[in-house]
Design goal:
The protein has 301 residues and is of the alpha+beta class. It has 8 helices and 11 strands.
């Protein structure tokens, strides 16, 4: 069997089965969630860890400005911190590049990494470099923390929960994906003021990510497609399947959802918040209700 016939989610399922069994009493969220969230001895807060990468030809084109590539490389794992409502603190950078790469391009790449790290007061404290005959790849690992009563994951959604998304979806591949700012401020405000049952960031498109949240929470979902917040110049299909939006998708009780909508408008008047549907009881006969989003190993290169 080849990776192309398996896909990212089933691959992760197989890898997870081969990993040593961990002490679940010390793990709030692990393999398959946006971040790993673990308990350390005598720690008041939970430790949050995340690694992510950008690869030339997959996450950016060679013609992209190195500054923007560096920005995106750092902001991708920080968007997962937003999904966990966590505070990032330190980062490690792994650079893999061909020896023919211009040094000036690499220095501009690191300027983008530093600029994006500074945006959230993250310190770059080390990393690794390696040569390769293949495309450029940049991997960023981030560590931080989240309070026990504010940690969010994909696993807590309940039937009847209201589903919300921040911002607008679709069209990000034209430029937004290189310049986005993760919703860390917004997610921290959410968990300070409301009980969020489940949350994740939208990186692979609503069509891929919403079923992942539902699967992790062991529920189904219903979506009002006509109510999706579509970005200017995009259409519903792009909003569902294109990906690279880096907005928040979260589940909250319907009652709290009503109060949230009013409070959100006061706190973030320039950022839209849209109720797009609800979670439901999971049915054995349930079929996919959305077009597929981006799935690694199954996209044409």
């Amino acid at each position: 069997m080849k990776l192309g016939s398996l896909g990212e989610d089933l691959l992760l399922d197989q890898i997870a089965r081969d990993l040593p069994r961990a002490d679940n009493r010390k793990i709030f969220a692990g393999v398959g969630d946006d971040c790993a969230i673990v308990q350390m001895a005598d720690a008041q807060n939970l430790v949050v860890l995340k690694t992510d990468c950008v690869v030339e030809g997959v996450h950016f084109l060679r013609k992209a400005k190195a500054l923007h590539v560096g920005w995106k490389a750092m902001m991708r794992p920080l968007s997962d911190f937003a999904a966990a409502s966590a505070v990032p603190r330190f980062a490690l950078i792994t650079l893999i590049a061909p020896q023919k790469t211009d040094v000036a391009w690499i220095r501009e790449l690191y300027r983008g990494l530093r600029k994006s790290a500074d945006h959230f007061d993250v310190s770059i404290v080390g990393g690794e470099t390696s040569s390769t005959p293949g495309p450029i790849a940049v991997s960023v690992s981030v560590i931080g923390f989240v309070e026990r009563n504010r940690a969010a994951s994909r696993r807590g959604g309940k039937p009847g929960d209201a589903l919300f998304v921040t911002g607008r979806l679709g069209g990000a591949v034209r430029q937004k994906h290189l310049k986005f700012v993760p919703r860390i401020v917004e997610s921290r405000w959410l968990t300070k003021n409301f009980f969020i049952h489940a949350m994740m960031d939208l990186s692979d498109g609503l069509g891929a990510d919403l079923p992942r949240l539902a699967h992790a929470s062991k529920v189904g979902f219903n979506i009002d497609v006509e109510n999706l917040p579509v970005a200017r110049g995009a259409d519903v299909s792009a909003a569902i399947s294109e990906g690279e939006d880096y907005e928040l998708l979260f589940a909250i009780s319907p009652r709290n959802g009503i109060h949230l909508a009013r409070a959100w408008r006061r706190e973030f008047p320039k950022l839209s918040l849209t109720r797009i549907g609800s979670l439901s009881q999971k049915s054995k006969s349930e079929k996919r209700k959305l077009p597929l989003g981006y799935i690694h190993f199954q996209q044409p290169l």
